[in-house]
Structures are given as C-alpha cells and as structure tokens.
C-alpha cells in the first residue's frame, strides 16, 4: 500500500473479488484467513458492503455477491463494446459476415456489439440487444464450452439454423478476461461455415480479450 491509496477500500475490493470467484460464498472466518485480517475487520467490511447491496449474507452466514453489483455491471457494457469494436470491424470486413460480441446476462446470451460488413450485397441482420438461450447458437455454445474446459483452449464452435433458418454461426470464447464472460463470433447466410472462418474468429476473440485486459 502507498500513501495515496486507501487500505479499507483495498480490502473491500478484495472481499468482492474473493466472493466473485466462488459459487458457494465465504464465511467470515474464511474471508479473515484469505485477507490476513481479524474477524472484526471483516464484519465491518461486510456490513458496509451490505449497506450498498454489493454483498448479501445467507441464512447460514455465508457472504455472497449482492444484486447491487448487477447495477454496476450494466454500465460495463458500453466500455466493453467500445474496446471490442476495432476487432469486430476487422472481422466483419475480412469475412464478409456480421460480427458480434456476446456476453452472459443471467441465463441468456446478450449481443452487446454488432458490426455488419460494408461491401457485401447481403448479410444477416443481427442487432445489439438480441438475446437467446446459452445452449442455442454458436455464441452461447462457445461460452458453455469454455465453462466446461476452463484450463484448456476451447477452440471455436459452429452451428447451423439454431437461431435463424438458413444461417450458420461461428464463435470463440473470450479467454483470460477477469469478470467478463463472453464470446466473439460471426453469423452468415450459408449452409456451412468455411474452414478459415473458425480460425479467424478465434483470432478476433484473442484481440478483444487483449483489449479488455
């Protein structure tokens, strides 16, 4: 810690990060051990975070991330979209297909950025704000594949006709971006995705991930 930083704020942010990394929550004792501070300090941190709805405690006393984090998260989408646009534009122009960045929103996949190619006679209309189940479409399936193999290279996912008749999709997940779960992909009017598209989509996903780190 330097003279210009706040130790209390630093600890509070570390609490949120620890809770975000677990599905089952943490007890005061567990947080105390991980932070290297006494239980009284943890109680005060949790009480403050609870006041802002950033943390909640269940009946068993385990602390979890609160719904207030979702309100903050909604403001992240414009920043993520801005960072992703250069890679999406390049992908759309190179492939001649509609490129998109999709993020997880609850149990759904949400398209937060879409770029259409400028030189094609026709392409799939795909709009930012479009939602679909995670288990349908290349964008959602790519995210699920990354969940199943978090330590491995999940590659890319291909689908056909799952979201729109006659349309095929290719998507690759964002890897190594803390706090962001999503994928980069393209959708095109074709019976099958050309071989080179999958590799190009993976390259774009890496570019977006790098921009977000």
UniProtKB/TrEMBL annotation:
Residues 68-213 form the IclR-ED domain. It comes from the Bacteria. InterPro entries: ArsR-like_HTH, GAF-like_dom_sf, HTH_MetabolicPath_Reg, Tscrpt_reg_IclR_C, Tscrpt_reg_IclR_N, WH-like_DNA-bd_sf, WH_DNA-bd_sf. The keyword Cell membrane does not apply. Residues 6-67 form the HTH iclR-type domain. It holds the Pfam family HTH_IclR. Transmembrane segments: none annotated. Keywords: DNA-binding, Transcription, Transcription regulation. This is Helix-turn-helix domain-containing protein.
């Amino acid at each position: 810690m330097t003279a210009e930083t706040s130790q209390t704020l630093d600890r509070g942010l570390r609490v949120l990060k620890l809770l975000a990394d677990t599905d089952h929550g943490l007890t005061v004792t567990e947080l105390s051990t991980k932070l290297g501070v006494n239980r009284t300090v943890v109680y005060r941190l949790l009480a403050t975070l609870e006041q802002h709805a950033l943390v909640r405690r269940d009946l068993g006393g385990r602390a979890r991330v609160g719904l207030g984090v979702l309100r903050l998260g909604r403001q992240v989408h414009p920043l993520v979209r801005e960072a992703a646009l250069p890679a999406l534009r390049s992908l759309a122009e190179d492939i001649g297909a509609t490129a998109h960045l999709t993020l997880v929103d609850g149990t759904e996949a949400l398209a937060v950025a879409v770029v259409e190619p400028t030189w094609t006679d026709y392409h799939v209309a795909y709009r930012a704000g479009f939602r679909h189940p995670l288990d349908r479409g290349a964008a959602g399936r790519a995210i699920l594949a990354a969940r199943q193999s978090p330590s491995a290279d999940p590659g890319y996912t291909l689908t056909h006709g799952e979201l729109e008749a006659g349309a095929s999709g290719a998507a690759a997940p964002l890897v190594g971006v803390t706090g962001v779960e999503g994928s980069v992909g393209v959708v095109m009017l074709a019976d099958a995705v050309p071989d080179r598209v999958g590799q190009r989509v993976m390259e774009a996903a890496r570019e977006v991930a790098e921009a977000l780190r």
